[in-house]
Structures are given as structure tokens and as C-alpha cells.
Design a protein that fits this description.
CATH class of the largest domain: Alpha Beta
CATH superfamily of the largest domain: NAD(P)-binding Rossmann-like Domain
Order of helices and strands: EHHHEHHHEHEHHEHEHEHHHEEEHHH
Strand order of the largest sheet: 3-2-1-4-5-6
Shape: globular
Structural class: alpha/beta
CATH architecture of the largest domain: 3-Layer(aba) Sandwich
Number of helices: 17
Number of strands: 10
Bound molecules: nicotinamide-adenine-dinucleotide
Helix content: 25-40%
Strand content: 5-15%
Distance between the termini: 15 Å
Amino acid sequence: MSTPKAANIQPPNGKLGVMVVGMGAVATTLIAGVEAVRKGLAKPIGSLTQMGTIRLGKRTDNRTPLIKDFAPLASLDDIVFTGWEIFPDNMYEAAAHAQVLDSDHLKSIRPFLEEIRPMPAVFDRHYVKRLNGTHVKQGKSKCDLAQQLIADIQSFKSKVERVVVIWTGSTEIFLEPSAVHQSVAAFEKGLVDNDPNIAPSQIYAYAALKEGVPFANGAPNLTVDLPCMIELSKLTGAPICGKDFKTGQTFIKTVLAPAFKSRMLGVAGWYSTNILGNRDGEVLDDPESFKTKEESKLGVLDFILQPELYPDLYKDIYHKVRINYYPPRGDNKEGWDNIDIFGWLGYPMQIKVDFLCRDSILAAPLALDLVLFLDLAQRTPELKHLGIQEWLSFYFKSPQTAPGLYPEHDLFIQSMKLKNTLRHIRGEELITHLGLEYYD
Ligand SMILES: NC(=O)c1ccc[n+]([C@@H]2O[C@H](COP(=O)([O-])OP(=O)(O)OC[C@H]3O[C@@H](n4cnc5c(N)ncnc54)[C@H](O)[C@@H]3O)[C@@H](O)[C@H]2O)c1
């Protein structure tokens, strides 16, 4: 087989500016964590870009470089953080409030965290009912607010080599695509007209893409998964991806469901419930925000199990997802799953999963990987021109794909897709796991 041609990837020279929208639990755990790793105080556990290797060539070749060297990715030392938040707290105060990292960890990097103060946010309570922030921009119209965000991005751009924006803000109310989202021209008119179908997260995404800056969406909001954003992303060469970090229960679900399907075991029901007590839990206590999250969590099983192909196994599956706000647990979420499966001749069995996880400890490394991979995409012409970065599906509950294309939810297919994309852009053979060559 001939060796594929490597892409013309620009080297990751200079500083990478990361602009974080919503500087709560996930964002502060990301920022504090990157600094702790830089100072040698902790290891970047859970981050594929920092700890993962990639096999190249045959199993007998012994070529397994670190992904961060192979790709090539920006170094953690070159990352500079800023962002927007509706509360004025600096990152030390915000991290202390979030109560994810213990005070010893925070104290050792306190001066660094205190230096990072959020810029005023674009916010409207209509879209996140349970929050009431004071640190917000004032503007005559949504267009005016978008211009203010563009000015923030331009100012940060002048201090660093490249910029990436990531949404780690709260979950907004459930919205569906409407006329205003069908083209960039319609969206820009909607900004001027203050169209209520335009949520704050969309204004941030618009500002970033307009500036040619990549945008990742870590929440389940309708943000970049819109025709106008896809159009703008291609127009300005700004890669996009989303949505909703795949961290706890859905991460486990997308491991277990493919296992049942691969063995042709049936699933009669899957009941998932969670308790969590952080600000995210408080926001999701509002039915309108919960609906956005519910849609994102529910889609997974249908796509993996394909009931239309396997009616005897999955046609009548009862799938329920609940999230309950329970303040005593803080960020330490507990997720229970009761799975009713059936086997040979239809005999029933049960599986119980009780995942005592830490939400932001699971999410922070995903956010880090996403900003580094989006930065790689913006330096790689072959990826940049695609707009949607489907190869980053690995990180999301609702992966964004080309319109009309169903998403891959199986974690191991997603992992293979990600690694094969890296091999592809570096001119290495893709790995199919066929393996006949070992027996020639
Ligand atoms: N932690 C996880 O495991 C996980 C997994 C998947 C998705 N998410 C999503 O990631 C997001 C962040 O989660 P979190 O636990 O950090 O929540 P959080 O409530 O601690 O942080 C979100 C922050 O966003 C701010 N915010 C809201 N609207 C804003 C706006 N328009 N502009 C700027 N700031 C805004 C809030 O004030 C808050 O501080 C949530 O939407 C959550 O659903 C989290």
C-alpha cells in the first residue's frame, strides 16, 4: 500500500489563547489543573492529548509516540487563559466557590488564579432562568453585544498567536432551529432585530466564527449546530464541534450499549438517574434547561442500538433519564443505571451501575483536549476547511455531524475515528485491525 501524503500542518509556534465562556466548575478545574500540571504539582490524568500514545504501522513495529508529539499540539506552557462570566469573581474565588479542588491544590497556585478575571458576559435570564448575574454587558441590540464580544476577541488576539473559544457556560433553555438560523444573512438580521430565537451562546459562537476563531460547545445548547454557524465556519475557516461533554453516565452508557449490541443481547429498559448539587445541578433543576440536557442524553441509545435494524432486541426499549438537584453532594455527582437486558430465548437479566463520579474532574481534561485539537485543526488546512470536526465526536454526548449524517456514539468507534484522523493528517497508514499480514 502506498503511504498517504501528510497534511501541511503549521507548527504550534507562539502562545495559544484560550477564551472560556462561563468560568464555573469545569472552567476553573481546567484552568487550575493546567497550571498545577505546568508546575509539576499533579499529572494530567484523563487527558488523551497529554497522556495518550498512538500506534503507528504494524503491531510488530513498536512505534507508539505520544499523541502530543505526533500531532503536533501546542504545549501546555504556551496556553494563556481568559474568558467571560456573569459573576465578577477571579478564578481563585470562582474555584473556591465551585469546591471541586481542595484548598491545598488551590493555595499552591493562588496568585496565578487571582490574576485571571473574567470579562463581562453577554447574558439574558430568559435563557438560563436560575441565574442572576451582575457582571454583564449592556447593549442596544444583540448585534451591539456581538460587536462587543468581537472587540474582546480582537484585543486578546493581539496578545497571542492563535485563539480558541470554548463554551463551558450553563445549559440554556431548549431551543429549536428557526428561520433566523438558516443563513448567516438571516442571523445577522436577527441580531439587529433582537430575535428571541438567538440565545447568548449563539452570540458568542457568531463572534468567534466571524473572527475566524474555532468554537467548541461543552453544553447541550443549540449553539454551533445550526446552518448559519456551519456556513460561517466554512466561510472564515474556523473549525467547530459540539455538543455536551461526554463525561459520566453517558460515557459509561456508550461503552455498555455497544457491548450488548455486539453480543446481540436485547435491552428492555434503561433507567438512568443522577443527583448532583453544584451550580450546574441548580440550573438543570429548571425544567426548560433540563429539557435541553434530556434531549442530549436520550439520543445516544437509539443511534447505538439501531432498533430499526434489530427490532427483536431493541424495538420496545424503555429509556428514561432523570437529574435531581441535591445540594449536599456538590460537584460529586452520583449516577445510577438500572439496565434490564435479555439473552438466549428471551431470559431476562439485570445490570446495576452506581457511578460515584466527580463531574468537573471528568470534564476538565476533555475541555483541554478539545481546545488543543481545535487548535490543531485550525493549523491543518485539510481539517480547517471541513468546518464541523466530526473526528472529535469522542468528547461529546451529541456529536455534531454533517447535516443528514447520523452520529457515531460508540466510544471505541469514536476513539478509532480520532486516532485515524491523526494518522491521516500525518501521512501514516490507517489502522483497520484486519491483521492478515501477520499470517502471510
Ligand atoms: N461537568 C460535567 O461533567 C459536564 C458534562 C457535560 C456538560 N457539562 C455542561 O458544561 C457546562 C458547565 O458546567 P459546570 O459544572 O462548570 O457549571 P457551572 O454552573 O459551575 O458553570 C457555568 C458557568 O457559566 C456561567 N454562565 C452562564 N451563562 C453565561 C453566559 N451567557 N456568559 C458567561 N457565563 C455564563 C454561570 O454563571 C456559571 O458560572 C454546563 O452547561 C454543563 O451542563 C458539564
